Amino acid sequence: MAISENPYKDLPQSSFWRHAVANVSIETLDPVIEGAFTISSNDKIASAGSCFAQHIARYLVLSGFNYWVAEQAHPMLPAKVKKDFNYGIYSARYGNIYTARQLVQLFLQASGEFIPSDTHWKAKGGQGFVDPYRPQIQPGGFDTVEELLADRQQHLAAVKKMFATCDVFFFTLGLTESWCNVSDGAIYPLSPGVAGGTFHAEKHKFVNFTVAEVIADLTVFVDLIRAVNPSVRIILTVSPVPLVATAESSHVLVSNTYSKSVLRVAADSVSRSRNDVVYFPSYEIITGHFNRGKYFAEDLRTVTEEGVSHVMRVFMKHFANKLTDHSVYTMPNYSSSACKSSSFIAEIQKIVEVQCDEEVLDEQ
Amino acid sequence: MRVLIIGHSHIAAVVAAHSMRLKRRQIQNKLDFRFIALNGDQYKPLLVDGLTVNPTLLKEVSDCVSGGVDGCFLTIGGSWHIVLGLADHPVKFSLFPHDVSSGDGRQFVPLSLMRCAMTEYAKSDLTLLEMLGELLPKPLFFLEPPPPVPDDAHIMNVAGPYREKIDQYGIAPRKQRLLIWRVQSEIIQGVCNRTGISMVSVPADCVDSEGFLHPRSWHIDPVHANVIYGERVLQQIERLMELQNGNI
Fold it and tell me: What is the pLDDT along chain A (364 residues), one digit of tens a residue?
């Protein structure tokens, strides 16, 4: 190398802060160099993760992707009830999956390789029963333990199918802090006692995963899913939503930095060690100070719609260039059974109304 | 004593029984019945903007009440169990957990989900019930709608307008029909409890040992009960009014 040259000389503008960040308008900043693969409109996309993943799922649906919901609500249910009971929020009704360990255990539960000892919790302040591994999916809980177990069986069958047949799996890492069962290591998305159950210090333990543990868990997950679905492509993101609380003795701001740093490093590490696993920088788009904090709401935690829109704009640009028209957001494709069902209920309702009118007229 | 009975189509069996009594000149009791059948065109829509009772209905109810009534009986809605549970759904479902493990292919729907679905579908009926509950003087009762018919053959025989759907998708399993009717009663009971309305159960001798509609009360359609059932309800009303007035 000549003395006047240096390793940075021929690098693209995206490598330089002044060109790629400081001198770019907020809305147009694009931290992705190139998408590792593209997603066609036929590819079945499944997703899971912490609460930010809900935004991603919503936009994927609205953007005309084939967002795949493997666990559909029964089509007779009114739209409001489906939403209240968390159907269609993700590809299956698992609620938020905050940690990589939780994701691994979901896979193992679905394949029958892990059966946690804790089967149910009493609903908080209610009569019903709560699934410890998805405590918020059923408002008020299930009426009976038998119902809870039957619904879980149905749920896990859908999850198994989803892992085995999706073309793209989108996972948003949310937390490193979690609670687990001491006896079998089962991870709870929420501490016992928050949405149900009772916290017992001898039975439940706080864990805060290290970067090595998260890398190991993510790697195990990639290998598990590839064993049943070799061609699946995986997109990893880190949730920009800060911790709502920390169980560590440190300040929540400090704990948040630890948690997000670990997740960010782990995502990067696994995307380098496994093929067709990519990291998508939604975390950087939302939290990067180039945006002067405008992608967080007043509570400094909720991501604004503008921020989500920026993330998805960048995503579409790099991963969706095979789609025909990204500017036109279409409504989700309702399955034919759902359409058939809504007309079935409406038709029966009409018959009941007409017949009931006639019944009364008969007696006048 | 004057009794006001307001209701949807299940009122017809009671009206028929009352007419039968009139024809047979069996009016030896002290009750003077007044009926308001909500299916009448003059009351449509029953709720204006989903929030206000139809003015024509409101006036008629107010006139009745101001003329003096000693007891009011309601039977509003009550056919949602038919909408959701008579003909089998194109996407077959089950409310029974053991059906999931038996692998019969039906989608399991937890009861709390069915409860919320029916509450949502029946929203305007339940709102009307709540509004009338606040409007009408006490004592105020709700007449539980008749339970489903257990016999598939009878349902087929009297299917009428439901035949096409039943031919296409079949009749829903009998135990499920009964459970959906019970969910409906539970929802109505909840509104009654909140509004100070007493729920009057189906006459005991009109149900069989499992809780279905007894054959002697079967009607010429699969939804409603017959005049014999209506007569039993009239007798229930008479007993309740006598109780109210301390005559028993």
Answer: 565 689 999 999 999 999 999 999 999 999 999 778 899 889 999 999 998 888 888 888 888 889 999 999 999 999 999 999 999 999 999 999 999 999 999 999 999 999 999 999 999 887 899 999 999 999 999 999 999 999 999 999 999 999 999 999 999 999 999 999 999 999 999 999 999 999 999 999 999 999 999 999 999 999 999 999 999 999 999 999 999 999 999 999 999 999 999 999 999 999 999 999 999 999 999 999 999 999 999 999 999 999 999 999 999 999 985 444 444 333 334 345 555 566 888 887 777 777 666 665 565 4
Other Cβ atoms less than 10 A from the Cβ of B215: the count is: 11
Chain A residue with the nearest C-alpha to that of B227: A363
**8 Å CB contact between A237 and A266:** no
Token code pair at residue B57: 């209905």
Distance in Å, alpha carbon of B247 to nearest chain A alpha carbon: 31
Chain-chain contact of B223 with A341 (C-beta, under 8 angstroms): no
User: Cβ separation of B112 and A128 shorter than 8 Å?
Assistant: yes
Cβ-contact A358, B224 below 8 angstroms: no
Yes or no, beta carbons of B91 and A74 under 8 Å apart: yes
Selected residues 202-231 of chain B with any CB under 8 Å from a CB in chain A = 221, 223-224
> Closest Cα partner for A67 from A35, A36, A90?
A90
The nearest alpha carbon in chain A to B120 belongs to A78
